[in-house]
Write a structure and sequence with these properties.
Blueprint: H1 12-20, E1 25-30, E2 35-38, H2 41-46, H3 50-53, H4 64-80, E3 84-91, E4 97-109, E5 112-122, H5 124-166, H6 168-187, E6 193-197, E7 202-205, H7 207-213, H8 217-220, H9 230-233, H10 240-246, E8 257-261, E9 264-271, E10 279-289, E11 295-304, H11 306-328, E12 332-337, E13 342-345, H12 348-353, H13 357-360, H14 371-387, E14 391-399, E15 405-417, E16 420-430, H15 432-460
Antiparallel strand pairs: 1-2, 1-5, 3-4, 4-5, 6-7, 6-11, 8-9, 9-10, 10-11, 12-13, 12-16, 14-15, 15-16
Amino acid sequence: MPQDKKLPINNLTYLNNLLENMNEVLYTYDLDGKITFINQKVYDVIGYTPEELIGQYMWKYVPEKYQANFRSILKGRLLKHEVGTYVVTVVHKDGSTRIVRLNASPIVIDGVTIGEMGLATDITNERKAQKELKRSNLELASLSQELRAANEQLKAIEEELRNQLEESESNKEALAAAHQSLQDILDFLPDPTFAIDLEGRITMWNRSMEELTGLKAREMTGKGNYEYAIPFYGHRRPISVDFVLSGNKQIKDYYKNAFINNDVIYTEAFATQLGIKGTYLSSKSSILSDSRGNRVGAIQTVRDITVQKAQEEALLESEEKYRNIIQSLDDAYFEVDLAGNFVFFNKALPQAVGYSANEMLGLNYRAIMDKRNADKVLKTFNKVYTTGKPFKEFGWYVTTKQGHKLFVESTVLPIIEEGEITGFKGLIRDVTERKRAEDALKKSENELNKQVKYLNTLIDNLNEMFITYD
């Protein structure tokens, strides 16, 4: 190298540049554990600048639960002048943690230890990789064990297959008998049932289906092109068994009432061709698979729910009449849940207390009365809940939205669903005027009694004899 190109080895600036550009964190600290120097690399590792760290204790930057142990080890090492390598968890400025490897050695000047210097290397990713490798090794070991077990199982299966091959002729007969048994079972299923293959050809049409449609299995088996839809709807069209095979596409175009649960399709539809005026049918369709899990077709069962539908419609009609009657009542009708929130009421209730229907829905009964009357209502609800019996002619004061006081009488009954009390219902009648009249009459009677008592007192204190006679 030419003489004028020599590196400035003794140049302090050059040495500082070397220290600042190291790939490791170089640091020094005194006997108290305070940092006296640290290079710029520390910012890449824990997010602090050297200026923020100088003068701070080393253990300040490890998790709090490790600080006492870290301080003890550091002090002991300084006393023993030991050189060592350590792995430490440090806290980044953003609150996350890093794992670093420390190579520490004492700083000795003229035989006197004045502190320590060290190199810190961020091994967070290395540690993560080690943990991941360990986890992978455990998984591989587990997989190896499973493979060995599977291999043993395969050997057993191979042995079983050899035995089965030796008995193939007898198995054919058994298979034919099993197929016939399965066909007999399907024939005697109470619900009409049929199956199709992947091409949509009918492979099974049981006896109940023959009775429902009037078509024999020998007429239907082997037919495709939606032939099975004609007995129900009078024309060829996809039905739920087809949507199972096609991934349920466009099912809503054909069924208003359809839902899917665990790849099984449930539908309700009106079959115009069945019965004199048509028949309501519910159906259930699912995939058919072979012993190896391969799809071989689909199966559908149907059930006549015409009577059930008529009952549901009658119930809906009855409920509608009930609702209309409730709405036409002059007295207020209410239903609350167990928490006392209004879940249903007729128009008379919000009109009486000055709220809109939207304001009343979900409102708690406590909102329309003071605490004394609310406690009185709560006791009544508790009594009805405990006994399961209605509570009649129960009176209390309510407060309207405008602040007026109304005295009402009510009959409270339990709402029972599936044997459980789920809330309370009742009729409320505004008897404020009657209450006022009763109070006025009571007050008048009290005044009259006072006057009679006063007259009796006057008579008893007369100086003359006072008599009455008929």
